[in-house]
Automatic annotation (TrEMBL):
Signal peptide: none annotated. Belongs to the enoyl-CoA hydratase/isomerase family. Gene3D superfamilies: 2-enoyl-CoA Hydratase, Chain A, domain 1 (3.90.226.10), Lyase 2-enoyl-coa Hydratase, Chain A, domain 2 (1.10.12.10). It holds the Pfam family ECH_1. One of its GO terms (biological process) is isoprenoid catabolic process. This is Enoyl-CoA hydratase.
């Protein structure tokens, strides 16, 4: 594995097959600064080809996941007057975040979000692009943008994909905040923990399941799921059949079949 990047706003720790990425700006409830956006993007770019990392665990320091965008960056963008023909600084700010969250959404790794405390705005969007989301008892989720006179410009499409248009409309248009129980009911998160200990137990179980699944097959499956609803069904199934044929003839497919017949764990389920 390559040496991990040095980050100012993130704490990176490799544990077995998982890279734990902690958003580390607890004094502002881990509000998403431009620097944090750039560092998250760089981390996901670096690990994309790293086969030793199969899952990414996103969590916030100090009991909060992420309270949204950084007010200082917003104020800085407001103070910049774009010259004629230049992009608006607010546009650049939004698109930098949008590109990062799209990158996380499309990562070949299994992304696990631990949602605690404030999961607001951009933080809510980040939770919505995770593959597995676990909420702690303190978690509060919300899209407060309309109450601030702005719009959830980069997260709204991902929220719609997560929970459907009907529920997204209610949350966004009323600027609501919901607790962990309702978030679980809506499908924002998959599991709700009653304590810190239970969070760690659920996380451990999720990482262990990642370990049991073949890395390349997992990445191909995630990519296939993202294509559903965006392509014609017959074309998608044709492509999926081709990918299945490739997978079953691959080293992973051979090892998985052999391991099943020999009643043993496959090679990818051991070691790191």
């Amino acid at each position: 594995m390559e040496t991990l990047l040095h980050c100012e706003t993130l704490i990176l720790e490799k544990q077995g097959p998982a890279l734990h990425v902690t958003l580390n700006r607890p004094d502002v409830r881990n509000a998403m600064s431009l620097e944090m956006v750039a560092e998250l993007s760089a981390v996901f770019s670096q690990i994309e080809g790293d086969t030793s990392i199969r899952a990414v665990v996103l969590r916030g320091a100090g009991g909060h996941f992420c309270a949204g965008g950084d007010i200082k960056d917003m104020a800085g963008a407001r103070g910049q007057k774009p010259a004629e023909g230049e992009e608006d600084p607010f546009y650049r700010l939004m698109r930098a975040f949008g590109q990062m969250i799209q990158q996380v959404n499309e990562s070949s790794k299994v992304v696990i979000a631990i949602a605690e405390g404030a999961v607001i705005g951009g933080g809510f969007g980040l939770a919505c692009v995770s593959d597995v989301a676990i909420a702690g008892p303190s978690a509060k989720f919300g899209m407060p943008e309309t109450t601030l006179g702005v719009i959830p410009a980069q997260i709204a499409p991902f929220v719609v994909e997560r929970i459907g248009l009907t529920q997204a409309r209610r949350l966004a248009l009323l600027g609501l905040r919901v607790d962990a129980e309702e978030a679980c009911r809506l499908g924002i998160v998959h599991q709700m923990a009653e304590s810190e200990v239970e969070i760690d137990e659920l996380l451990g179980q999720a990482v262990e399941r990642v370990r049991m699944c073949a890395p390349n097959a997992t990445a191909e499956t995630k990519a296939l799921l993202h294509r559903a609803g965006h392509e014609s069904m017959s074309g998608l199934l044709d492509s999926a059949a081709e990918k299945f044929a490739t997978a079953i003839r691959s080293d992973e497919g051979s090892e998985g079949t052999l391991a099943f017949m020999q009643k043993r764990a496959p090679s990818w389920a051991s070691g790191e």
